[in-house]
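ok new one. same drill as before - structure tokens go in, u give me an amino acid for every spot. 238 of them this time. try not to just spam alanines like last time pls lmao
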């Protein structure tokens, strides 16, 4: 991509606060963007070949939305965690194995998409994020859901298409969790905490494609309580 084209994009971005350059085969984060650290609210560099997010990402202090779907990122810089206004972070289809230690400092984060990466567990850093609404961790290599999940503030947690065989009973303590997606994992029925049904806020539990028949779920203690929440929620949205 030529310099003049990039320049045109930068000029537009300066006026609109939005820099979008997708599917252009970029191999690195455009250095020239640092001229716009105080302008940009949105950066979308999805569908490129970016391998590294440079530390300068931490300078975009007004950034609200960052999308880097379908790139080649293997790690994220700690500097990313300085983005105190960031509300939406889309990193689907990369090669991430973990999140930066300071990830819990992204205090404004509402939506986090990490589908199609190489995470092996639900990152404990997520428990510190107080405004999180939706977390998508589908299509990773997660095998267990740890105790720290009990402090997760999300309303929806998507863990579809992982390798989950164990879930901490703490998941039923999530204060705002309404939607839990666990489709196509490796769960035995005995490994599904019954408190999810009897004693949680969860009103939509999706567990198709595990190692048990769905009708067996209906025989569990607490299923009727779960159905009450499910029906009440359905009525609300009908």
């Amino acid at each position: 991509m030529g310099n003049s084209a990039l320049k045109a994009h930068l000029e537009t971005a300066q006026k609109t606060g939005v820099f979008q350059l997708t599917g252009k085969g970029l191999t690195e984060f455009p250095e020239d963007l640092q001229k716009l650290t105080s302008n940009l609210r949105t950066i979308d560099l999805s569908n490129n070949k970016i391998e590294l997010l440079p530390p300068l990402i931490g300078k975009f202090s007004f950034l609200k939305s960052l999308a880097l779907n379908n790139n080649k990122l293997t790690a994220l810089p700690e500097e990313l965690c300085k983005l105190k206004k960031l509300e939406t972070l889309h990193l689907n289809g990369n090669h991430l194995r973990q999140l930066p230690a300071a990830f819990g400092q992204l205090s404004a984060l509402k939506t986090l998409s990490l589908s199609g990466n190489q995470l092996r567990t639900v990152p404990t850093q997520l428990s510190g994020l107080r405004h999180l609404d939706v977390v998508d961790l589908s299509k990773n290599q997660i095998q267990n859901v740890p105790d720290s999940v009990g402090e997760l503030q999300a309303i929806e947690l998507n863990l579809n298409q992982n390798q989950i065989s164990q879930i901490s009973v703490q998941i039923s303590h999530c204060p705002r969790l309404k939607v839990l997606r666990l489709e196509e994992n490796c769960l035995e029925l005995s490994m599904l905490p019954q408190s999810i049904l009897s004693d949680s806020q969860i009103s939509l539990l999706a567990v198709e494609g595990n190692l048990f028949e769905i009708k067996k779920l209906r025989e569990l203690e607490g299923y009727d309580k779960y159905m009450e929440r499910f029906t009440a929620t359905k009525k609300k949205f009908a």
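The domain at 119-237 is CATH 3.80.10.10 (Leucine-rich repeat, LRR (right-handed beta-alpha superhelix)). and btw The chain is about 15% helix and 15% strand.
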